[in-house]
Every structure is written in C-alpha cells, then in structure tokens.
Amino acid sequence: MSGRQTVPHLVRSSLLPKVFASPPQNIHNPSSTAFIRCATPTGIYMYMAVANAMFRSPLWNHLGSTAAGKLHVQRLLSNTQPIFAATKRIINIRHNATAAPSHPQRVDQDGPFDRRGGSLRAWQTTAKPDHFLNSDALRHPLPRVEDSASSSSSRSLLYEGGELKIYDGVENRSIRVPGQWLRDNCACSQCRNTDTAQRQINVLKGSINTTVSNVHMEDARRGQVTVTFSDGHQSAYSAQVLLNRRSKKVTRSRTGVVPMKLWTADIASARPAVQYTDVQSDLGMSRLLAKIRAFGFCVVEDMPATPEATEALLNSIGPIRNTHYGAFYDFTSDLTMKDTAYTSEFLEPHTDNTYFTEPAGIQALHMLSHTQGSGGESSLTDGFNAATQLFVQDREAYLTLSEVGVYAHASGNEGISIQPSQAFPVLNHDPEEGYLSQVRWNNADRAGIAADFDVVEKWYAAAEKFDRLLSDKNNQYWFQLKPGQTLLFDNWRVLHGRNEFTGKRRMCGGYINRDDFISRYRMTNLGKEDLEVSTVSG
Questions:
Q1: In CA terms, which of 95, 191, 341, 391 is 20 to 30 Å from 427?
Q2: 284 pLDDT exceeds 80?
Q3: Count of alpha carbons within 13 Å of 510, Cβ hemisphere only?
Q4: 454 is in which domain, residue-wise?
Q5: Would residue 538 count as lying in a domain?
Q6: 157 and 120 share a domain?
Q7: What is the rounded distance in angstroms from the CA atom of residue 415 to the CA atom of residue 274?
Q8: φ, ψ for residue 101 (rounded to 5)?
Q9: What is the CATH number of the domain that holds 234?
Q10: What residues contact 136, with CB distance under 8 A and at least 6 apart?
C-alpha cells in the first residue's frame, strides 16, 4: 500500500470486543484489507482493518487476512453470545491483495461501521446509524429509504392494565400511549375546529380529563380504535395512524421529502421539463413541483415570453416574496441594483439569499430577450450531489462544512445592511433525521467565519474541496435560456451561475418562500388522508 493511511476514531477502543485481547501473532500483509464482522456488547457489527495502520487500539495491534488469522478469530468468537442470535454469519473476512482504496466501500448493507470510510449506499440501506461508534453519523447527505409497510408489520395495539400500548414483536416490548396525547389529538368537533382544523382544547391546563377508562378495538393492526376517558368523552383514532405515527412516510409527507435524484452534466440529455399549457391544471402543477422536489429544478417550456405570464406562473405556485430588490423583478444589466446579477459578468455557481436567515425556496428566471450580443449561458449544479461526493471523498471536510457557521451580507445598496440572525454552516441538516436539507453557498456574499483561526484554516481547506466539486464541468449543466422558457429551481439545493455576455438582456423572475413551495407541493401531490395525518396529528 503506497503511503500509510489512518482513519482517526474509526472505532472507540472501549467498544472493541474483549475477544481481541490476544490477537493473532506474526501476521503481516501490508497491502491487505480485512473486513471483520465481530460480536460486541451491543450486537454484531462490521469492522475494517487495513494492515495495522487503520485499526489501532490498546486492545490489539493488527489483524491480517490469512487463513490462520481467520481461524483464530472464529475460534474466539465461537465462545461469545451475541445479542442478535439470529445472525449466524459471525465472522467474514474478505481479502484484497491490492492496495486498499482511498475510500473503502461498505461490504454488506447490514454491517454498520464508522461512516467516515463507508459508502453512500450504506446510508440508504441501513435502518439505524451507528451513533455509539461515531456521533458524527447524525449528519449525512440523503434521507435513508424505509419501507413504511414493513416498519409497522411487527407492531400491534394492546390494551392492558387500563392503558393503550403499542407492542413491538421484534423488540418484544410495549410502549404506553399517554392519555394526554390521546386527548390532545382527538379530532372530534369539541376538541378540534372542523373548519380550520385548529385545536380547541388545551390539555396543558390540567382541567381536561386525560385518564383512559376503556379502549375498544376492531383489530389490533387496522380499523378504528375508540378510546373512552373517565369523564365519558370518546375519541376515535385509526389503528394505522397510531402504529405509524413516527414512520418515515409520515415524516416525509409532513416535510415534503422525496427520494432525491442526483445528477451531473449528463442531465442535459433528459432535463426535467413540463409544458406551459399543462401546468394550468392541478395535475400538471403536481408534476412540475414533483420534478423540482426530485431533481431540484424544472423548465416550463413554450410559455408566452412576457413578464405577465411569468408572474402569473409564480403566483400559481405561491406568493412572490418581497425583498429589498422588490417582489417580481424585470431588469437588464444596468446595475440598477448593486449586485453582480445586474451586470454582464461571469457568475460562479451560487445560491441566492445566503444573507437572509431563511433564503428563498424557489427562484424563477425567464430571459425575455437578448439583443445585439452573445454569451450568457446559464449553469446549474446539483449541490446535494456535490455534497454527496464530498461526503464519500473526505468525511472530515463534509463535517467541517456542516458544523462551522458562516455569515453573509447584502450591503451594496444605500440604506441596506442585511445579515442573517446567526452564522449558518454551508451544509445544513434535518435536526431529527440528520439528512442534508440545505446548501448555503455564495462566495461573493460571504462575510465572517464564526470560528477561531485554527478552525478557520480547516474551513478553508474543506471549502476549497467543495468549491472544486462545484466547479467541476462534469457536475455542471450548461444551457442557453431562451424566450418562452422559465427556469424554476430549488434555491436550497441547486446552485446557478452564468457566463459573461455582450449586448442587452432582459430578465424577469422572482422568489417563492420555502414553506409556500412545500405547501403547494403537498397539496398537489399528497392524498387527503396523508395530508391530514401528516399535518394535524402529533
């Protein structure tokens, strides 16, 4: 193996199994990679060793991949009693006689180990991150995919001891459903306004009875559940709603999360687009918004090349956001507003509004005309794809851009000095599930870095790597906007840029708030039941 690689904190020494206290001796193979599935107090997990450099611990020095080493570990592990008895493959060593890859891939989908060296697919196939091995596992590029049907198949409702419970057959345990939660989520006309769907009672006051006196169920897994409280009040619930309250399906429906379709320059062969006439219907609008959610952008083709038609299109999605640039904009490159967008200069890939606490969710651009000149091609870059590449290539750089806050500013116009309420990192993640939710990247508008100089140096190194990925032509989709084409893109994901140009261009467009965009997506893409469950219930 050329050079010695180290992966810091690959495994915490306190969690290494004691079976390695007496490692195999005299096993040397400096160009080998061993993947070891071993028993720990918390179950069976996959570990990785490359020679003796990537797996250092006080408990053992190194593990080779020879037959003697394999037999030694098998013998040691045969005396252990792993928690997950159903797992029969206790040891599985795979040997690679060539140099270890700089970014080793996960061997099996079901063997979690520290994700600094893992593959992206591990995040999409592993049900639970290995927090006990690496606290940084909470941050990752994409939502993990979960089959909501299988997640609840082992659960059923149980009424015993005067309490409604959810029993999990896999974990062999039950969880009590609090009476306070049940009354708080009652959907009857006394407890919730049927017109506004707003709650009409306050269980926090203590005057509302929350003691369950009886539960009637048609079925433990489906059908209606009727709960009677000690004051005689009755509430009805869906068994599936109770069992799937915390499922990925409900969470995704609530926040409008969909499986992301990452892309590179190859998107040019089949870019997402819809016809203007189609988006006049709810079905066409649902397809437009679904494409924006999945790809991060979509082009509306064959529409009138007028500001009026463009403004009407934006208003059909949501209210146009008003900023210090105004609401709907219609401009040329005359520097009326002090911003590089109002020039004819080259623009690097960037997201807009990094100087706002909440940047716009959707941006629309429509080139109405370009006369007496050339150039001005537009570029789009999938920020989530670039972040995913960084995640796989350099986990430390990814984490640095996920943790270190950066300020931004808009102060070129007289009487304006805008900064966000706090410093935000470049890569922002869902606080509950840890997936990447927003990229904030604008070198021109970047202000201070909220860190000491030793961390600032790390930030620059990480930002330089991310910038190279964003600037890689293989990651950029270049095209020429034409009159009659309106580009709509997710400003939290897709970075846009522009070539310099000559002549006179007239552009129009506007911003739509993130919440308004997601609301319109949900209303056009979710059924009534999914909307109700993911909106009101707690």
A1: 341
A2: yes
A3: 25
A4: 270-524
A5: no
A6: no
A7: 41
A8: -65, 150
A9: 3.30.2020.30
A10: 115, 116, 395, 399
Give the pair of three-digit tokens for residue 65: 């991949």
Q: How confident is the model at residue 74, as a pLDDT?
A: 52
Structure tokens at 423: 């410093």
Mutual angle of helices 383-393 and 395-403, in 10-degree steps: 130
* The last residue of a domain, from among 113, 138, 163: 138
Same domain, 286 and 229: no
**What's the first-to-final CA gap in the chain, in angstroms?**
54
Residue 529 in any domain: the answer is: no
* Residue whose pair of structure tokens reads 């049907």 in the numeric block: 149
Query: For residues 9 and 133, what is the distance between their CA atoms, to the nearest angstrom?
Result: 9
Rg of the chain over Cα atoms, rounded to whole angstroms, equals 28
Mean pLDDT over the full length of the chain: 77
283 CB-contact burial (10 Å; exposed 0-12 / middle 13-18 / buried 19+): exposed
Is there a single domain that holds both residue 287 and residue 400?
yes
pLDDT (tens digit per residue) in 218-232 = 888 888 999 999 999
Same domain, 395 and 417: yes
494 close to 407: Cβ distance less than 8 angstroms: no
Instruction: Give the CATH number, domain containing residue 441.
Output: 3.60.130.10
Q: Do residues 6 and 113 share a domain?
A: yes
As a whole-number percent, the residues of the chain with pLDDT over 90 amount to: 53
Domain count along the chain: 3
**Measured CA distances, 270 to 221, 287, 293, 460, 515 (Å):** 43, 15, 16, 35, 28
- Let me know: does 185 contact 537? Beta carbons within 8 Å: yes
List all residues 6 or more positions away from 161 whose beta carbon is below 8 Å from its beta carbon.
none
